[in-house]
Amino acid sequence: MAALTEAINYGDAGLELVIQSLQNESVQLKAVAYKLLHKRKEAGIGQVIAALNPYHYKFFECLTTLSGHTSDVYGIAFSPDGQTIASGSHDKTIKLWNIQTSQLISTLGEGLSSPYALAFSPDGKTLYSNNWNEIKIWDLQKKQEIRILKGHFDAVLSLAVAPDGTLISGSQDKLIYVWEQPRSGKYDVLGEHPCYVWGMNTVKVSLSIDGKILISGSAIDRAIKIWNWKQRQQITTLGNETLGLNNYAPGLSCVAISPDGTIAIAGGENQVDVWDIEKREKIYTLTLEADNKIHSISVSKDGEAFFGGLNNGIIKIWNLFTGEEIHDLEGHSANVMSIAVSPDGKTVVSASIDKTIKIWSIPE
């Protein structure tokens, strides 16, 4: 390892040796080579690094564990600048953490109703959180609640924020609301699932074809709905409702969408289905061991891999296009309830009912 680190300083020959080490059977050696090359600016190095994706996730390790919550941690979210994470816990608080120092910045609220749905505004100055059937708006500069959004009549289960600042909420009341100017308190009803609306994710404008795609998933009807939320129109339904397939028996627990808006992912119990949205066809199905349940899904920023949080504390990483298993991140001792990827794609954070938050990346 030390010899490889030294070799990078010996011109083209040393650089070539490091590049060749990416093909070595030793994961540790490849990890060292990857980290050395990642810092280089020579022409062509970027292509070498890109060719290794998404398998560079094999080199991810737990950098640190954040402890401070006194009960299960359900929700996690990155700020737009990637410097802060927000966590929501069954201890009825929201905590803000500095991702660089791993230090607690502040604690928001007391007596909240298990804030597990969290989302930052695009400018990073505002945080949205569920509080049973309400949505709280937090001013992060003042560290205080500034508004409560009311409209849903049952538990709010998921939140997403579009690049223009529009807030979208999914609830146990079966409805999806669109809040174009959240602080006004006004909303439109986008649509309805015949049962719980569990998860949703809106594609960022910079990564989607039109910046308008929203995906929502239902726990009981097992349907995945694709929306053009700006036009308040449903594009299609994937799964049980249109194809008559019992895809997620007995239920759907998490959904995600690829950055370019072309692939939908849905997980429930020990099964994950990956769909081509345009063709409306299932690409493949992953079946986990019977006692493994999937609770959370998040897609890498390059759109080449996705992460799944399991009830055994493991985070699995799969190749998005092939379903090939890339790596397991091990460290949590219980259900991984939420996963978030940093805006630059270099860091992953996870929240678990073991009361901790873990930060994963490639060690420097």
Explain the layout of strands and helices.
Layout: H1 2-7, H2 11-21, H3 27-38, H4 45-52, E1 61-67, E2 73-78, E3 84-89, E4 94-98, E5 104-108, E6 118-120, E7 126-131, E8 134-139, E9 144-149, E10 156-161, E11 167-171, E12 175-179, E13 188-192, E14 197-202, E15 213-218, E16 223-228, E17 233-239, H5 240-243, E18 254-257, E19 263-268, E20 271-276, E21 281-287, E22 294-299, E23 305-310, E24 315-319, E25 325-329, E26 336-341, E27 348-352, E28 356-361
Antiparallel strand pairs: 1-28, 2-3, 3-4, 4-5, 6-7, 7-8, 8-9, 10-11, 11-12, 12-13, 14-15, 15-16, 16-17, 18-19, 19-20, 20-21, 22-23, 23-24, 24-25, 26-27, 27-28
Organism: Nostoc commune NIES-4072
InterPro entries: WD40/YVTN_repeat-like_dom_sf, WD40_PAC1, WD40_repeat_CS, WD40_repeat_dom_sf, WD40_rpt
Pfam families: WD40 (PF00400)
Explain what this protein looks like in three dimensions.
The structure is a single chain. The protein is mainly beta and 364 residues long. It folds into two domains: 51 residues, no CATH class; 299 residues, YVTN repeat-like/Quinoprotein amine dehydrogenase (Methylamine Dehydrogenase, Chain H). Strands 1-28-27-26 form a four-stranded antiparallel sheet, with no helix packed on it. A four-stranded antiparallel sheet has the order 2-3-4-5, with no helix packed on it. A hairpin with a 6-residue loop joins strand 26 and strand 27. Helix 2 packs across helix 3. The longest helix has 12 residues. The two termini are 14 Å apart. About 5% of the residues have low confidence.
